[in-house]
Amino acid sequence: xxxxxxxxxxxGSTLIDAFIRSGAILPNQIIAxxxxxxxxxxxxxTHYGVKLADNNAEAAVHSDILFICVKPHEYHxxxxxxxxxxxDSQLVVSITSPVLIRHLEQQIPCKIAKVIPSVTNSIxxxxxxxxxxxxxxxxxxxxxxxxxxxxxxxxxxxxxFTRIISDISSCGPAFLSFFIQKFIEAAVEETExxxxxxTTLASEMTLGTGKLLTEASFTPQSLQAKVSVPGGITAEGLxxxxxxLDGVFHDLIKVTHAKYRDDLSKLDKQWP
Length: 272
Description:
It is a single chain. The protein is of the alpha/beta class. It is built from eleven helices and eight strands. The chain has an eight-stranded mixed β-sheet, with helices on both faces. The longest helix has 30 residues, at 162-191. The two termini are 35 Å apart.
């Protein structure tokens, strides 16, 4: 099996690195293309044996599974370029949320899936969100999920929930790390604790909290109850957060959805 990648920017290179380090794919099973040759050379320098394609069409021709890892507005051009070289038996995987399965089905003849990865996949953790065209049978769906299971927990979702689930799974690490960053900055400013110590403590706390939520059967609510004693320090802190953050996450979801709708509207103009 040969797995191709069109686009080796942040997420494309993350997937290549994770697949190879997890043992899911050997370097010589990968072919990649990118407009910036230096990005390809960096991947090959890290993972000797990865094949570098001269163009997107070459990557498409030689791939059994082809991941397209480019920006939304670049999809139409890329698909137009590779369409003549695709056959029905190939599987094209989009990793971009505003590009819908129907957009892909309108332009290319092969099997189609949509997978939304997360930066957490770089350490073989977190989820990968999976959506499938009706062109795939159950065995083909299972095959792709088995590949993704080396670097993530594959979760099948309905495409209508792409944005909100991406907010939690893919954008979430950035949102959560922003909260942690502000916590650390406040601790340093208020108490003069060394930033390095505060960062280590916050990072270890985040790791432990994640394990409690995933491995110890805690829910966010039950974990708060476990730590918080009525009338205690944690309870006072939670009370403040409840009042100050009221409505913030609703607004956050509205902002991300508005951006998603804007991107989708622009794409629909490319695919009338």
